[in-house]
Amino acid sequence: MRTVLILLFDDVEVLDFAGPFEVFAVASELHAHTLFEVKTVARELRSVRAVNGLSVNPDLALADAPQADLLIIPGGAGSRAVMRDEVTVGWVRDQAYAAEKVLSVCSGARILASADLLDGLTITTHHEVLPEMPDYAPGAICLDDVRFTDNGQILTSAGISAGIDLSLYVVSQLCGIEVAEKTARYMEYDWRVRGPGQSAR
User: Fold this and answer.
1) Catalytic residue among 106, 155, 175, 200, which?
2) SS (H, E, C) the chain
3) Which among 74, 78, 101, 124 could bridge 17 via Cys, Cβ 3.0 to 4.6 Å?
4) What is the pLDDT of residues 78-125, one digit of tens each?
5) 106 belongs to the catalytic site
């Protein structure tokens, strides 16, 4: 059983975290809850107000979180504040050292850049954030018009719904294509992008 930790913060984009949550939770649910344990984590154990006002209660505070096998960093308007928060960025950096996979969704790439995790990698993010990325991660190669990239341990995805494609891809890599396809069917998600570097359109 792999531990999946999803970071939450104020003004996080809803589908950035809810899409991957659904993928990993459903994949595990369809296999007797044996594949993944999915938990949300925030700087403090208090309700988080997502973009457009959705209130979410994280499972864990940073200080109480176990080591993640899979660490998911969503984006949203709040990612600008998080990338300047030394406590959260330090936690992300520390978790990333021992995590099997680290995934960013949308502008969550800003946070990985602030944690010095993107240097020399091929990355993507939301199309409106791409022009900023050379300032945050000057050593990274930024790709437009792809759904996600896979650098081995570090994976990045484009905006919002692309996090679902990336999560299904990771499920396919870790558990097999049949598990990912079964998950997508259950979700009634039209999963067409199955590999890194494929077009976003």
Assistant:
1) 106
2) CEEEEEECCCCCCHHHHHHHHHHHHHHHHCCCCCCEEEEEEECCCCCEECHHHCEECCCEEHHHCCCCCEEEECCCCCHHHHCCCHHHHHHHHHHHHHCCEEEEEHHHHHHHHHCCCCCCCEECCCCCCHHHHHHHCCCCEECCCECEEECCCEEEECCCCHHHHHHHHHHHHHHCHHHHHHHHHHHCCCCCCCCCCCECC
3) 74
4) 999 999 999 999 999 999 999 999 999 999 999 999 999 999 999 999
5) yes
